[in-house]
Fold these 2 entries.
Entry 1:
Amino acid sequence: MKRDYYEVLGVPRSAQENDIKKAFRKLARQIHPDVNTQDPDAEAKFKEAAEAYEVLSNPETRATYDRYGHDGLKRGGFQDFSQFSFEDIIRSFFGDSLFGNGMFGFGQGGPVKGRDVSVPVEIELGEAATGVRREVEYDAVDYCEACEGSGVAPGTSRETCPACGGSGQQRKVQNTPFGQFVQQRPCRDCAGAGSIVKAPCPECHGRGAVMKHHKLAVDIPAGIADGQSIRLLEKGSVGEMGGRPGDLYIHVAVRPHEQLVRDGNDLIYHLPLTAVDAAVGAHLKVPSLSGDEELEIKPGTQPGEVKVLKGKGMPSLRGRGKGSLKVIMDVIIPHDLSAQQKKLLREFAKTTTDKNYARDEGLFEKIRAAFR
Ligand SMILES: [Zn+2]
Ligand SMILES: [Zn+2]
């Protein structure tokens, strides 16, 4: 339920433009989220007041609101402020100038999370099936050992920041169309620390942090697929101002296998099968990730037939069950036959009772009969 705009600003319906402006300024100072940080609803309240002011300070939208209420504004295309971000609203009232200098404390002076680091790793399909341990190497920001992260040259200490007198904060008074805002922001000279480094650590030049080469053994789980990543929490660069470290991402590439193609948790193998073996049956070996598998080819096996070897596929990444090895029969028809071989095959065709072979004979019979 939307509250009445006059009620929000606390003014009578007969209020003059100037009274409306005054009421909003007063409210803005009270509930401004930067001033009133203790109130969790400050932002919502500020949005509500800003919206009420936006409508009532414009004679046209005010007239629409007076006659038709909230619905009238909606029909007229007025977008209520809940659809805008708080930052957008502040910008529309105060301009860009108040941003980026810490007035609202966005990303200023507080803890900053360390950078994430990515490492590519390439493994074989067989390793993806069993899981594998790999040592990865990467560069990430770490605390400087020489100064134990303080940034101060050994034997010296930090000194009180002269710019802020050690408070870590700077106050600035800003004049806006709605009155004065007292702005409190982290001190630029000491980044809010209250103290500065007079004699910087020669190892890290006062930063307290250095780039370090890391080696880490990583367990790549069985079932991982090409293109998937492993996230190792807080193994990236260290954070600043007490922020937590970034994460380490292991990007896994799985090299394609020479004979087996992965399809989800299944593996596909195309078996080259001679027409003779397909016709009379055979015992053949097919490759799998755990060595060769014996496969019985039944007499009369057709091209494209699929033999499913259950449990011979890839393990599920969730650790339950395994896929299948699917063997697809690629029947090879003999070519470059000698005259003798062709004769033998025609002899065979005459003797077979298979209706697929008999069909042609029947057709010739019909044509012959037509000329009789
Ligand atoms: Zn250092
Ligand atoms: Zn300072």
Note: The domain at 264-332 is CATH 2.60.260.20 (HSP40/DNAj peptide-binding domain).
Entry 2:
Amino acid sequence: MSTTLYQSDLSPFAGRVRIQIRAKGLTGIAVEKAPGGTGSDEFKRINPTGKIPVLMVDGVAIAESQTICDYLEDRYPTPSLWPDDLLARAQARLITRATDLYVCAPMFQTTAHASKKVRDQAFVDARLAELKKGLETIDQYRANSSLATGIYAIGSRLTLADAALAPTLFFVANFAATVFARDDLMSASMQGYFTAVQKDPHVAPVLADMAAALAALRGK
Ligand SMILES: N[C@@H](CCC(=O)N[C@@H](CS)C(=O)NCC(=O)O)C(=O)O
């Protein structure tokens, strides 16, 4: 089967898939930039939203990072990146979903306001309040589950909850907190998780790729 991931090193959504690819030890997946670039007419013929990541499998496009991760879990079940215990698995899926809905969604609405010249500060403040609340919600889900005991989001090994959350927190720390001068977005407990999960051997190189891509962008 021919399988290609269209992606960029800076995208936390693509980072989620790359963490999964590393953790599963998958070697047959080509990694490329979106043909024509994200948002281009050429790429919209592949994914109508114009967004990466997209996984092409024998000419068929799978869009949306979590859908891609779910496909790869189904195609390569071992090692599983979900907890074995079904209740823990539900908690891990909850964190993945909360990351998308309550953290990524408001954060990415602020990207058009990065430049002070075009910034609507009230809009940014409202989105960052949502983002902060989203992170507090995830803190609470982790605390309530009693399963967030180690360096991982849920349980004692890497799961897709970490694959979603760690690159997102990289973006919170290096985009939202930095560009909008907000050092209060992550709680001490979330900061502690973020510091700890960076020690994972599959997370660390992906966050390093994100940092290198960000440095290259800022150097332009
Ligand atoms: N919900 C999507 C979000 C993907 C997304 O927002 N990708 C961004 C990069 S981080 C993108 O491709 N933006 C380009 C555009 O909107 O034209 C997913 O989970 O894959």
Note: The helical segments are 12-24, 41-44, 65-75, 86-109, 121-145, 160-179, 188-197, 203-219.
